[in-house]
Design goal:
2 domains, 250 residues
Length: 250
């Protein structure tokens, strides 16, 4: 993902990752795991931007926290924000960071984040990244549907399309795979318009400029209740520049 742009944490992932740096240093402030987890959670809450609201909980895996600190690595740090809102956009976020080196410039062996979006939130993101305002994505099981219209002899013909979700490293992609006409025109057969619908460019929802540059989209799973996006990285380092330099949409 080329380019460097700074932008408030619309998807909250980048904000939570930035806070992970602060939290990592506090994990050794107490001898008890629960105390360390509470301290980290409090620091994360205070580090989030004013536009972000919601509670974040921290869980530290592995052996003794102190032993992990002196070994130079934390086995597993888990961050959960089940109901968080960023700039008015709600999401549920779960982040697992493993093999974390708790120092400025330290590495994170692997980071995986899942972000759950409702249909309303997904449409807000889609419209903000160029999808026409009149196009509304409806969630199904491993598919989305949306309506549109084409012109036939100067007459607008409505259709409903079904699209299959997939991903690139930067975006969610919804490719039309089936369609049906929803507007009749007397005795005319307008089914010939359907190949045109299926030949349309997929709907692309870019999320790259909402997350750190080193983070890539790895999968999406759609159910009627939500779209679950999985983000991954094995190259993040604990510097503010790394965690706040956002990706860009090509």
């Amino acid at each position: 993902m080329a380019g460097k742009r700074r932008r408030p944490g619309c998807l909250i992932v980048s904000a939570v990752l930035v806070a992970l740096l602060v939290g990592a240093y506090l994990l050794v402030d107490g001898g008890l795991r629960a105390f360390a987890e509470g301290q980290a959670a409090n620091q994360i809450d205070s580090a989030l931007p004013a536009s972000v609201t919601g509670d974040v909980t921290v869980s530290i895996g592995g052996a003794s926290v102190i032993a992990q600190y002196f070994s130079g690595r934390f086995d597993r740090v888990e961050l959960t924000a089940p109901a968080i809102t960023a700039e008015g956009i709600p999401a549920s976020v779960h982040i697992i960071a493993t093999d974390v080196e708790p120092r400025l410039g330290g590495t994170i062996g692997q980071m995986q984040a899942t972000v759950d979006l409702t249909a309303e939130t997904l449409n807000t993101l889609a419209h903000s990244t160029g999808t026409p305002a009149e196009t509304t994505l409806e969630l199904g099981t491993n598919e989305v549907t949306y309506v549109g219209s084409l012109s036939f002899a100067g007459i607008p013909i409505g259709y409903r399309a079904t699209a299959t979700p997939s991903v690139t490293a930067s975006s969610l992609v919804f490719t039309p795979t089936a369609a049906e006409v929803t507007t009749g025109v007397g005795g005319f057969d307008v089914s010939a318009l359907l190949p045109t619908v299926l030949g349309q460019a997929p709907i692309s929802v870019c999320v790259a400029d909402f997350v750190p540059q080193e983070v890539a989209v790895s999968s999406v799973r759609v159910t009627p209740e939500r779209a679950r996006i999985t983000l991954e990285s094995s190259t993040l380092v604990l510097t503010q520049q790394s965690l706040t330099t956002l990706g860009a949409c090509s």
